[in-house]
Design goal:
With 400 residues, this protein is α+β, with helices and mostly antiparallel strands. The chain has a single domain, classed as Cytochrome p450. It contains 18 helices and 14 strands. The strands form five sheets. A five-stranded mixed β-sheet has the order 1-2-10-7-3, covered by helices on one side. The chain has a three-stranded antiparallel β-sheet with strand order 4-14-11. It is globular, with a radius of gyration of 21 Å.
Length: 400
């Protein structure tokens, strides 16, 4: 739970992330914060601070000794039990886990997943294309990253159904603040993580290519790590390994659906799709609620943040900071890559190359297999802390 903030901090209420305006148009709210209140305070969920400018967000991510991940790393706090390495740890403990898990995330291993990712993409897109319409998120984007995740984890394909169902229920409980349901779904996710680890104990794989095997081979001071932390590390991947990618697939498709000129440009010039992915990541960064907590009293832009007070790093706002990006709300295809969509510093997302591969393959197949697509109804967006469509009805014209 959040610590009680000092009375003087509770006076300010600069930012409400679930106000109607913020939910309808968060980027207008963020633009206002960057201009007039770059370190904002919110009384929502017990209180937290929020940084909206690029340089300030980067500064906090670089000062991991002053702003830690081990107390709280998302707003609102997830109150379920268990630490989930490496996200919930700070250096030097974090460094050991990150190093142990790093090999399967290397480009060489990730690139080998491309044919499988492409096959899944075509399989999921085909029914929608045959009908000429459908909900791209529920029919494609919500399932595709889970299938790829199962292959990455060397888990049976039927595990994908379990992961999607459990994560859907977990996120719904998190968003509605249903503590009992959240605890129950979290425990089910831990049980699934345990089954994945048990399978690797009986049938070990190459630690260079399998995360669970790499974790089981991990030693600290010559000793195996605890079962609780092993399960926590796999459990973390079961949510983090697909939710943000689903959000991004929906955002990418939505942007292209309302910008038919860009659709046609990318069809004519498919070599530009990787650059388009980077710019779409900047424009539609899929998570708004990642945070750090102050380890001691620290002054930020004239405000004193006290120990254990959470500070949300508004990555979607930082990625549209007009001080860093010219015409920040515009899509600029060949803009230099300096976005923070995968975070920054020691906790930068280890799965960024896997996410890039999935997004690139998804766009390649969507564009190659259609002559045109457009919105076919209202778009429903996911609530805080996710950012992206949770429903995206499209009308599609298949390629001839």
């Amino acid at each position: 739970m959040f610590p009680k903030l000092p009375d003087e901090a509770l006076v300010a209420d600069d930012f409400d992330p679930v106000s109607p305006q913020a939910q309808r148009d968060p980027h207008t709210v963020y633009r206002g914060l960057r201009g007039s209140c770059p370190i904002a305070h919110s009384n929502r969920w017990g209180g937290f601070w929020a940084l909206s400018r690029y340089d300030d967000v980067v500064d906090v991510t670089r000062r991991h000794e002053e702003f830690v991940n081990s107390v709280q790393n998302v707003v609102p706090a997830v109150t379920t039990t268990g630490r989930r390495p490496p996200l919930h740890l700070d250096p030097p403990e974090h460094t050991l886990w990150r190093k142990a898990m790093s090999a399967p995330f290397k480009n060489r291993s990730i690139s080998e997943l491309e044919p499988t990712a492409r096959s899944f993409t075509v399989e999921l897109l085909t029914p929608l294309l045959e009908r000429g319409r459908g909900d791209l998120v529920s029919e494609v984007a919500a399932t595709l990253p889970v299938l790829v995740l199962c292959v990455f984890l060397n888990a049976p394909e039927d595990t994908a159904t379990q992961i999607r169902e459990l994560s859907d229920r977990f996120l719904r409980a998190f968003q509605t603040r249903d503590a009992a349901a959240l605890e129950g779904e979290s425990r089910r996710l831990y049980a699934l993580a345990q089954r994945i680890l048990e399978a690797r104990r009986h049938h070990p794989l190459d630690p260079e290519r399998d995360v669970a095997s790499a974790l089981l081979a991990m030693r600290v001071d010559g000793k195996p790590v605890s079962e609780e932390l092993l399960q926590g590390a796999v459990r973390q991947l079961l949510i983090a390994g697909h939710v943000a990618v689903t959000m991004m697939m929906g955002s990418c498709a939505r942007h292209l659906a309302v910008h038919s000129d860009l659709q046609q440009e990318l069809r004519r010039r498919p070599s530009a799709i990787p650059a388009a992915v980077e710019e779409l990541l900047r424009l539609y960064t899929p998570n708004q609620g990642f945070c750090r907590t102050a380890a001691r009293d620290v002054e930020i832009l004239g405000k004193v943040v006290h120990p254990r007070e959470p500070i949300v790093l508004l990555y979607p706002s930082a990625n549209r900071d007009e001080a860093k990006f010219e015409a920040p709300d515009d899509f600029v295809l060949d803009r230099p890559v300096k976005h923070l969509a995968f975070g920054n510093g020691v906790h930068k997302c280890p799965g960024e190359q896997l996410a890039r591969l999935e997004l690139r393959v998804f766009l390649q197949e969507l564009l190659d297999r259609t002559a045109q697509f457009e919105l076919d109804g209202p778009v429903e967006f996911a609530p805080w802390p996710e950012y992206g469509p949770k429903s995206l009805p499209l009308r599609v014209e298949p390629a001839r």
